[in-house]
Records
---
Amino acid sequence: MIADAPTLEAPVGAHRAALTRLLAGRADVGEALSAALARLDARWSAEETEVWASGALGLVHANAGGRCLAAYFRLSASAREQEAAALAADARGAAEVARHAGSAAALAVLEAMPAALLRLPDAGARAFWWRGLVRLAREASDGVAPLAAHAHAVLAAGGGPAFESFVAAGLRATGGSRARRTAFFALEDPAARRLLERAGGALGFEDLERRLKLFGRALWGVAPRLAGLEGAGLAPAPQRASIAGELIRLPHVYRGVPPARVPPLYRAALAHAQAHLVFGRRQKVGKIRPLQIAMTGLIEDARVEALAIRRFPGLRALWTPWHEARPGDAMTAPMLMARLARALLDPDYEDPDGFVEKGRRLFAEADGRLDDPLLSRAIGGLLGNDIGQMRLRFDLKAYVVEPLYRDDNLALWEFDEPPDERADEIEQAVDAARPTPEERDDGRPSDEAPEPEAGRARPVSADERGPVVAVYPEWDRAAGAERPGWTTVRDAPAPHGDAAALEAALQRRHGFSERIARLVKGARIGKAARLRRQPEGFDLDLDAAVDAAIALRTGDLPDERIHRASGKRARDVATVILLDISESTRDRVGGATVLEIETLAVAALARAMEAAGDAFAVRAFASCGRDDVRLFRLKDFADRFDRDAMARLAGLRSGLSTRLGAALRHAGAEVEAVRAHRKLVIALTDGEPSDIDVADPLDLVEDARRATLSLRRRGVDVFGVTLGGAPSGAVFGRANTIPVKKLEELPARVSELYFRLARL
Amino acid sequence: MTVDASAHLAAELIRDEPYYRPVGDEIDLFAAAYAGRLPVMLKGPTGCGKTRFVEHMAWRLKRPLVTVAAHEDLTAADLAGRFLLAPEGTVWHDGPLTAAVRLGAICYLDEIVEARQDTTVVIHPLTDARRALPLDKKGELVPAHPDFQLTISYNPGYQSAVKDLKESTKQRFVAIEFDYPEPAIEAEIVMREAGVAAALAGGLVDVGLRSRNLRGDGLAEGASTRMLIHAAKLVRGGAPLDAALRSAILLPITDEPDLREALAAAIAASLPEAARL
Ligand SMILES: Nc1ncnc2c1ncn2[C@@H]1O[C@H](COP(=O)(O)OP(=O)(O)OP(=O)(O)O)[C@@H](O)[C@H]1O
Ligand SMILES: [Mg+2]
């Protein structure tokens, strides 16, 4: 008996009857319905057909339209081993899609189903499919049709579960942007393709990038420049690393590698590429035959690896497991070359082949002059000839360097005229040095970002400028005196941005939230401190006790607080965080702009401060002449750091100049007004102050320095976190300048620093 | 009122030569500073031999050595001394600094930045032309013994921007810079201190270099000479190399998984056989 058989009121056959009655006169579907019923009757009992018919009725009621119904009937007729309940569920799913996304979308889905069913073997797998589609129809209906058209590719990556999570990821990644969404679900967005390639759950380049950088730097002392390698257009990601100049590009994903072997594979690839960079040199191609090009590359690979192994013996063990060629493999030129590659690396490998033996011997004889880069050309030329004489076919275009961890060796050659199809690959590699919008790591769509109010350096008429909140003096360096009332600070509206994207960017940073949580925990508990001269406690405070005893003996009134206690020192600190958002914060470092990283850092810090219960306000500033120093109030002391504050932070845009002194004076005045034992201003700035109406930036440097000194005299500690560039102690003083050279470190660093600073 | 001058100090006269492998001209410099009774600041990362150097110099100069490790809760009284109660009245008890001042010892204040600034200023009168230590509580001005000398250590690492010595404190000292010695010398030290063979010591020093490459990039400091010696001692005590490296270096140095994995891989790459970490 079938679970959702018709209810008691409806006799068996009622749904079927209703269906045929409703569609009786419809030329567009009548025929498909009869055909389906004829098929189904032959296969199913009347009860089963009834279950199916109830599903089909749902589709009719959803106004899915004739073409949809016909498609569904055809699907039902053709689906061989399908259960009635599963087909009824399909109808319900299609009805739901039609309701939210329209009948055209539902039709696209139904038409994709015959092919999709190959990857959706049972009702369970199909449930994922429909959940994904229905969610998409509800939340972003315009994505359904493009996704249906590419459903096979998505399903191929991992069946139903992968399909549903692909939808979820797509919705997350594209935020509110319709254009991006369409591109994503049509698989035109590289991010979508990357996602599919990694649907198996294996780690990809992005996941491992930081670890690889650390690994490379630990070995050679300099951090390697890395980028992910993307396939052009719809092509899958290349499977060999590629070097361009100093830049090492690694495949976004190595397909078909067991997950546990992926990290060592990336390390092997990086170590090989670094060996090229450290020990290699480019050579002119000149007149040389294809086989010799390939063989020279092979010998060069062995040469730089041998040199690297001399320095780091353990590298051999990193590389050898990837060499799998062996005697008995088919006798083709690439196979033979793979065996030679193995023989040159792995002393334990045995191969009786004459060619392999000769290669080994030549290479061994050259052992004393491995540091000569011309060696590869000499040995490679000889061996290339040998293979040629063995009459083995060789096609350079189809040739791939073996094994997997090695690079394409394009970087070895200076092509007089680069062969066409490779030329744009090289182009692309060089291009990667310039980050593309997709590489931004804040998840914000770059195409549709609203143009910011503060972002344009257009002249502002008087009434358009924000309300005046304060007027400050400025230091006149030439005159050696303050000009009173020189700068005007105005309140600028802080537009909302995409808080969710900022949140997501925060989440994406590895191990980051844990680190910050730990800091907060430390801060909350407070350092267990020995408190002296307490009215009670576990122990006598010797100094106090002695003082009291002496007082007693000399007839004075003793102070009775003679105990030591252990307790928390209360944190009593108020802080203004000041962000420089001037034009220069638009600069890109790695994949992101300075502002994006600043924003991330402040978001993390604010979170942490909020969690620790500290008083703080967040301000951003930019200026357009002395009359218009704009202050964006992202969070006031009285407010919580909530979603709105996040949104205002996410809404910041780079633009205008940096009148640091005025901003510092204002931040200082604000924090001064708060009652706290310790008062801090922490300014995040990426460079020297400047403004449109000041010819010599040094004037503003000096003014900012004066502002800092005067605040310090009034008990406000000012710290400057200076990003990138030369750390300038000029403004904040050496001890209070915290240069962060590596911008990527900023988010983690700033919070750490704050908690050290705020320690009492 | 009695003064309990430090009988225990005699014990601090170092009899046997502490092993110290000179790296540059630090011995001559220190000796010259001592001859002029100038206060000395030893700057350098943790575990690079500063403490050992002072011990060696104290032995060489035949002065007793008083060492105080500074910490956040160290008060001026902890250094200078305090009154204690005895049945018959109060007794003054010299702190280690006062004891060294009276006795003509070398006083070594380790990691002085850790102490609060109001504690640090008690050394000011000792380190300028006055060369005397005022004991306010006791109403005594203790002139420094002619042989007294003050040495402090200071790690200008990661936290210098936050915690720093007052300018007026810093400028009282002559500084001697320390760093991890060059590989050959460091290997010699590891060999000697842990009693291991040259090959192992050399390998460990290379491991140290890998970690020092990550200084400032996740690691506040790289593996110190001290850590390398610990690893060597573990191996000498029978631990397999990979386990020794793990316990003596990898685990103590960082809690960050990415960093640990990357460092482990780099270490494995620099060792002869694939030590699995
Ligand atoms: N030049 C050296 N000669 C002899 N031993 C050394 C030398 N450098 C380092 N060592 C060894 O390293 C160990 C650590 O050195 P030491 O304790 O002196 O470091 P430190 O610089 O005082 O560190 P910290 O700043 O953490 O106190 C010593 O116990 C000693 O074994
Ligand atoms: Mg190569």
---
Amino acid sequence: MMTKSALLEKPPTPQGMIEVRIIQSRPIANNQWSIWVKPDEAGAIKELPSFLPGQFCMLSLLDRVDPLIARPFAIVDQDDGMYQFIYRVHGKLTHQLVKASVGSKLGLVGPLGKGIPREHLKKGKHCFIAGGVGYASLMPLIQELVKNKREDAGRIFYGVREDLEIIRKIPLAYDIASDDGSAGFHGRLPELLKKKESDWKDSDWFYICGPTPMMKAVYDLLPPDRSLYFLEETMGCGFGICIGCVVPILNEKSEVKKVRSCIEGPIFKGEVLKPWKDGAWAL
Amino acid sequence: MGSVKSLPSIKLLESKVGSVEFKTPLLAASGTWAYGLEFLNHPLQKFLGGFVTKSLSVKSSEGNPMPRLYETESGMLNSIGLQNMGIDAFIQNVEPQLKAAKSSYVLSVYAQRVEDFKILAEKANACSAVAIEINISCPNIDKGGLEFSSDPKTTAEVVSQVKAAVKKPLWVKLSPNVTSISDIAVAAESAGADAISMINTLLGMSINIDSKKPWLGRKMGGLSGPAIRPVAIERVYRTYSKIKIPIVGMGGITSSRDVIEFLLAGATVVQIGTWNFRDPFCYEKMSEEIARYLQKNKFSSVQELIGLAHR
Ligand SMILES: Cc1cc2nc3c(=O)[nH]c(=O)nc-3n(C[C@H](O)[C@H](O)[C@H](O)COP(=O)(O)OP(=O)(O)OC[C@H]3O[C@@H](n4cnc5c(N)ncnc54)[C@H](O)[C@@H]3O)c2cc1C
Ligand SMILES: Cc1cc2nc3c(=O)[nH]c(=O)nc-3n(C[C@H](O)[C@H](O)[C@H](O)COP(=O)(O)O)c2cc1C
Ligand code: FES
């Protein structure tokens, strides 16, 4: 294939906990918010480091021990030393995040995880398959194609529950599948993909991010050696020390092995994910 | 990060557990610092007194099913189990790196049978570890583990056998899931322990009211984090007056204030566990704040704080 490896060989080691301030916070679609954060003026770091598409940060509420554990969020965009995140209001931390005012401080550790080198998007055709807020994780890749003026080389399939959940505006050719029929195809992503097979069959690479059942449901339709799955396992730390995020994958010897999703992933090629797909748990 | 401030007052933090010296009383706890490789060359090492390895067993182990973590109010349940690479792989692949970096670490070992503890102790002798910590208190395995530390007699038996085999200081890690932890500490001391590490996690469970099943794959798990700190402080306080050997205190530490609290209760040094997942870089700030506290209160060493709450 085009680039030697579709993924960064080794994830970065985080250098410190960066105190950031929320400088903008706004709803971007139903139940989904966008925030921009910037390092606190008092800290040693003035600009957030550059990142690769697919990388994430661990965010926590500073000076609070409940929620205790930081949560992973994909970096969506970067501008002027700031990061953008898009989150779905979901559980404990995100419910508090939505109430946090502009100027509030967060703890940020990142960028973390193996990202996708930007050169990877300079060639070939790319197909993006997103479920819900999983679309946010794919946005930096989509933006990269736009930046390279390669809009024609990309195609998006986006599954949502309803029309209001769609994060607009979508810069490439796309198809929507909605559970309630309020937008695009009335039904689920796998059915949409089957129906539109001629639109994506010739893609060189596939990027899949969404709820685990959705990712498993499209697995059999896609070429495993050219599909990259963005797993969203529960993470305790994000940088390899808690062993809470393990997933069963196939190693080079085709044995089932448990690896830490935060540092061996969170993006994995479909070909190693067979045991994950089958729900294998090698004990 | 930018340059780490060199802190003359870090001298105030020098600590000792028996004959073993640490540059600060702040150690990373077993199971929360993996095998120490992630931050081996990071500036935070300047403030980290040492770390304890994930508990190693004779054979490698895959641990428990997912999900393994569930957050509770200011706490966390984990059922990682003792997923580890096994002592031989550790000695072959990890130990040389730790030795080369002159890492100050304590080797934690775990077994289900006394004979296996002896094998582990003998292998530990060949490592550069400053001490060995025997984990006889893991709530996350079906057999062994907790059983050893739930009775003074079995505790004494395993401690004396390991003591006979090991040439390093022996730390014994105890469980709070017992009727009287101080009686067990006394038994460990008489059997030859050089220090008592306490506390391991509290056994706990949480149930998903929608699926009507426990949240964790293994159903129950160990509770850690700030939620358990008052329990840990009480156990350390109570045990301090019963034994002469040092106490390595832990349970729910998130700040310099918490560290000072443990020292006042009677801990000689502390271990930080769950908080590493949130902020593994906390050691610098904690060191600075403790040094400031000592200066403000006119102490000339952090060791002067040990057990002061008993006066
Ligand atoms: C690499 C990576 C990148 C990610 N990027 C994004 C992103 O860009 N945007 C985004 O929105 N999300 C993202 N996620 C997912 C996000 O991290 C989680 O949804 C996160 O847990 C939300 O935090 P929370 O505190 O709001 O929810 P939590 O309270 O942590 O709940 C999350 C899930 O945990 C379980 N759970 C835990 N406690 C409870 C409870 N008390 N009641 C009910 N359920 C509970 C449920 O299964 C629930 O669905 C990403 C995840 C990973 C691994
Ligand atoms: C994810 C996790 C894994 C742990 N694994 C071990 C272990 O392998 N051996 C051990 O002796 N203690 C283990 N512990 C217990 C900790 O070392 C510590 O005793 C406990 O978590 C209390 O401290 P804390 O509240 O600061 O986390 C583990 C704790 C956690 C949270
Ligand atoms: S999230 Fe802690 S090891 Fe992966």
